[in-house]
Write a structure and sequence with these properties.
InterPro entries: Cyt_P450, Cyt_P450_B, Cyt_P450_sf. With 413 residues, this protein is α+β, with helices and mostly antiparallel strands. The protein has 15 helices and 14 strands. A 5-stranded mixed beta sheet has the order 1-2-10-7-3, sandwiched between helices. Strands 4-14-11 form a 3-stranded antiparallel beta sheet. Bound molecules: protoporphyrin IX containing FE.
Length: 413
Amino acid sequence: MTRPVVDLTDPDRFVRQEHHAMLAWLRENDPVHWHETGQDGGFWALTGYEEISQVYLDHTGFSSESGPMLGGSFRSEKDPSAGLMMVATDLPRHRMIRQQLHWAFSQDMLRRVAEQVTRLVTTALERALADGGCDFATDVATELPAGAVMAITGVSYRDAHDLIGMTRRMIGFRDPHFTDPAEDERLVLAMTQADIFEFFAEVLRARRKNPGPDLISRLLKAEMNGRAWTEDEILYNCMNIAVGGNETSSYTACSGLEALIGHPGQYAELRQTPGLLDSAVNEILRWSSTNLYVRRGALRDVEIGGRMIRSGDVVTLWNASANRDAKQFTDPETFDLARTPNRHLSYGAGLHRCIGAMLAQTELSVLFRAIAGLPVTAALSGPVQRLRSNFINGTISLPVTFHGRNGTGDRPE
Ligand code: HEM
C-alpha cells in the first residue's frame, strides 16, 4: 500500500472519504502515530484495535478532562466542562454523575423511547412512501433522536426538532451547510452551545414550577455528595445527552441505509430474515463508526505499541480504524449483517462507554425493522452529501426513492 497523505485534522479529507485509506495505512504501518500539527506540536493517533482498547481501559493513565474532540490547541488542557459534564470528567466524580443519569437509560425509558420512535418513524416512512421518496437524512433519520429527546426530557415534538437543529449546528460547526464559512468556527461553537444552554434553562424553569416524569425534574431533586445538583451541572449534562445522542443515532441510521442500498444482497437477506436484526444493527454500527475518534490526555508516561506516550500528550483513539482491524475482525472490509462476534468500538469502551448504547440500539432496531418490513426497497435518487467533520461521520443529505417489490434497480454485489 502506498503511503497516502496523512492529515487527520483536515475535514475535507473526511468528506471525500479519504480517511479510510489514511487509517488503513496507519494501522498497517504506524499504529501509534505521532501526528505533527506545526502549531503546538501535535497529537498521537492510535489506529490498532488492541492499542486503542489499552487506552480506553487505562483510567488512571489517561484523562477525559480535555473534552472528547481535538480543539484549537493540541496541549492537554482542561475543557471548561471538566468536572461538570460526564464525558469530560474523570474518576471519582465521573461515577457519581453517571449513577444519577442512569435513570434516563433504564428499561422503562427504553420502552418509552421505543414507543415514541415507532410512532414517528412509521409516520415518516408512510409519508415517504406516499411521496415516492424523501431525503432520508432530514425526513426520517432525525425522528430517532426526536423520539428519544421527547421521552427523556418531556419536551414537545417541535421543541425536540428545534434542539436537534442546534445540536446539528454544534456538531456541524465546520460545515458550510450549517454555518457561514466567514464566521469564526470557535465563535459558532460557543454561540451554539449558549443556545443549547438557553433551551435547557427554559425547560428547567418550567420544570421547577411543574415537575414531570422526565430527567430534568429528576435532577432538580437529586443530590450528589450530599448537596443538590447545581444549575450548571444539570445544563452541561443535558447538553451531553443531547449532543451525544442526536447526531450519532441519526447519522448512523443514514450510513446504515446507504450501506444496505450499496449491498443489495445483504439488504435482501435482512428483508427475508427478521432474526438478523440484532447482528445487522451491530454491523451497521461497526461499518459506519459514526464517532470517528475520541480524545484523551496522558496523565503519566505510558508505553503503547513500543512508543512512549509522555504525560501531558494529547491522544486520539480512532474507533473508525479499530473497527476495520483485521487482527480483530475476519474480512473487516466486508459488510456482513450476520457477523458474530462483533466487538466493535463504535460506543467506545471502559468507564465512558456510551451510556446511551442500549437506547441507540433500540432506536436503530425500530428503524431497521420498519425498513426491512416495507413492501419496497430504497434506492439512491441523488448525490449523497457528507458532513464536513473529522470527528463525526455524518450524512446531511440522503435522497432516496422506493422501488417495487423485487427491488428493481438492485445491482449484484
Ligand atoms: C449510534 C449512536 C451512538 C454512538 C456511535 C455513540 C458513541 C459514543 C462514544 C464513542 C462514546 C464514548 C466517549 C468517550 O469515551 O470519550 C459515547 C459516550 C456517551 N454517549 Fe453516546 N453514542 C451513541 C448514542 C448515544 C445516545 C442515543 C445518547 C443519549 C441519548 C448518548 C449519550 C452519550 C453520553 C452522555 C456519553 C458520555 C458517557 C460517559 O462519559 O460516561 N450516546 N457515545
